Task: inverse folding
């Protein structure tokens, strides 16, 4: 069986897992290319472009093509929860994108491997979600592997900065929080379908990010457009990435919403850790990221934890 087929036993959709793997990896790698190699050092603007593209594609699919049934917000409480999700989403994506200006993609994935820990803790704090002792034990192994990888990366002396670590920790915390909140909105009493929740959330996030982009990056972006800082690359390459990158962000976010709706917040993050391995390998070949034996050993432990988690989830189904 392929890795997608094995993981599909948790969510019932091999195609959705495969789409999530490749679209998410493409977004992360092209984010790194744009900000660290092409001089587009405007993480707020880039994240705003992602959210705006999601709104446009969602409106096309729901309102024009009518591929999904349109749902209205059921209550003011649900409206507040969506707005709160948008803030979490914006902060997690912003910190993650911004961190790529200071760190390697491989290190980003190593710290991100600790997200299941935050999902477990925050799920219990906000919604009283409990899992079996064996599931918690598998998450300890997953997070332990992530910490060992982080230690290996930091001791390697390349691709590690303090500001990058701070941004990554913030991104990881809010990623865990927004995943828990997504699960509540997708599976709670007033649940919304994945396409509808994605559109409502992205609309609020786009407005928030647009205001931040204008206030923080407006002048710098105008100065960059008037200069030739990107002259090291043909203009068509930059323009193509700024079109394809946000379109891929829609695919990545939509597949993430579907995975959470059909499984759980914790299952989604565990699957995400296996996806991180792919990103690390790609970053080593594309950007020349260095991963020492200690970091590689940490990833091996993470994979063992993922395999254990999958076994426990299948046993409980």
Result:
């Amino acid at each position: 069986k392929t890795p997608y087929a094995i993981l599909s036993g948790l969510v019932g959709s091999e195609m959705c897992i495969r789409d999530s793997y490749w679209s998410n990896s493409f977004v992360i790698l092209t984010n790194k290319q744009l900000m660290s190699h092409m001089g587009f050092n405007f993480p707020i603007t880039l994240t705003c472009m992602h959210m705006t593209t999601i709104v446009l594609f969602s409106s096309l699919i729901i309102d024009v093509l009518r591929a999904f049934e349109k749902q209205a917000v059921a209550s003011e409480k649900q409206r507040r929860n969506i707005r709160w999700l948008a803030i979490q989403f914006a902060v997690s994506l912003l910190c993650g994108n911004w961190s790529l200006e200071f760190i390697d993609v491989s290190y980003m994935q190593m710290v991100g491997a600790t997200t299941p820990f935050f999902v477990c803790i925050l799920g219990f704090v906000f919604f009283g979600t409990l899992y079996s002792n064996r599931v918690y034990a598998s998450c300890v192994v997953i997070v332990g592997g992530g910490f060992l990888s982080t230690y290996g990366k930091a001791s390697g002396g390349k691709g590690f900065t303090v500001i990058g670590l701070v941004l990554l920790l913030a991104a990881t915390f809010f990623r865990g929080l927004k995943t828990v909140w997504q699960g509540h909105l997708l599976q709670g009493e007033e649940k919304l379908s994945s396409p509808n929740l994605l559109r409502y959330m992205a609309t609020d996030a786009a407005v928030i990010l647009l205001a931040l982009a204008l206030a923080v990056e407006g002048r710098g972006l105008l100065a960059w457009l008037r200069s030739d800082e990107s002259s090291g690359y043909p203009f068509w390459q930059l323009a193509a990435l700024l079109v394809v990158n946000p379109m891929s962000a829609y695919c990545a976010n939509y597949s993430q919403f579907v995975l959470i709706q059909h499984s759980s917040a914790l299952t989604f993050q565990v699957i995400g850790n296996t996806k991180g391995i792919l990103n690390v390998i790609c970053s080593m070949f594309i950007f020349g990221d260095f991963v020492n034996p200690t970091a590689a050993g940490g990833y091996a432990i993470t994979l063992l934890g993922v395999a254990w988690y999958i076994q426990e989830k299948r046993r409980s189904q």
About this structure: The two ends are 20 Å apart (CA to CA). Residues 194-226 form the longest helix (33 residues). Residues 35 and 41 are 5 Å apart (CA to CA).
